[in-house]
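Entry for magnesium ion complex. Fields follow.
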Amino acid sequence: MEAKPLITQVYQPTEDAIRLAARVLREGGLVGMPTETVYGLAANALDENAVRAIFAAKGRPADNPLIVHVASPEDAEPLCHISDAARALMARFCPGPLTLLMPKKPTVPAVTNAGLPSVAIRIPSHPVCQQLLRVCRLPIAAPSANTSGKPSPTTAMHVYHDLKGKLPVILDGGECQVGLESTVIDMTGEIPTVVRPGGITPEMLLTVLPEVRVADSVLRPLQKGEKILSPGMMYTHYAPNGQLTMVRGAQANVERCCLQKYAEAKAAGRSVRILAFDEHLPAYRDAEALSIGRLSELETVSHRLFALLRELDDEGVELMYTEIPPAEGLGLAIMNRLSRAAGFRTIDADEE
Ligand code: TXA
Ligand code: MG
């Protein structure tokens, strides 16, 4: 059933606006909520109808479970069984961009976590989100606040663009600092396993845990018959309308290859852009090249990546050739998102 369209208002996060948002949540409504990773589409995680409204607003399949957000580790106790290792992770990294999969308790309704034995718990650090959690005193279920198939929103305007008419309130907490969705780590098995890389890197996790595995599917497509660790990975991730290609290899070769592809596309009358790190932009000064941030400071890349992909779509760019970072540290999360946006399309510039 189609819900009646609502008037969507974007509010600066004053105390009054946060109280209003908390009331909407307590009454079973939806709120656009800033976090330090991406904006979330929030509802009371314990209210089945409110959670169903999230799936309807996003056009999200019901078998893709939601993350439950709480203000503190104590607030997670009623929802899940917390192991010693999970406690240690929370003590070190929460509040922050980390989501832990833990065995769920019966308080969490099956609609929220798609009937799985585990529930995803996250303690966001964004001050507006923390205040909202503390004022409404509810666990909040929230996926990224994009229409399924769009990049996750990193500004309140992205949320408005995708979901206006489907929720009454969006709190504007500014640009999301991290810019990529949280790291998801599965704590239910013998060895903790990263099923989605994010701002908390495997290297950082290893400062607390003796062993961390990274799921194979993080950097390649799911193979037929492979066990699915995170249902979100089954679904097609965002791909731009234009065709994105990753170019790897020695830097001089990457530059030559990007410029050659650019010239070929131009000659064929196509609209084309090169996406390059700031450090390398001078090499492309005669082409239309856009910054994807600084290679020496990958936080600048994660911060802007999704907004950049939205802009390229808005401009109707047909072809994009992008430089890529090494898949380590924060580079792992960036490569995970870029690979999916590119449909894993890669050119090896050393072999061109
Ligand atoms: O940074 C974030 O995590 C943002 C903000 C709003 O907190 N949220 C977010 O939610 O990215 P969403 O729904 O877009 O992505 C959650 C991912 C999905 O891939 C989902 O399948 C997976 O986490 N997930 C959630 N609960 C799970 C569970 N119990 N078992 C396995 N995977 C789970
Ligand atoms: Mg999402």
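NOTE: The first strand starts at residue 9 and ends at 11.
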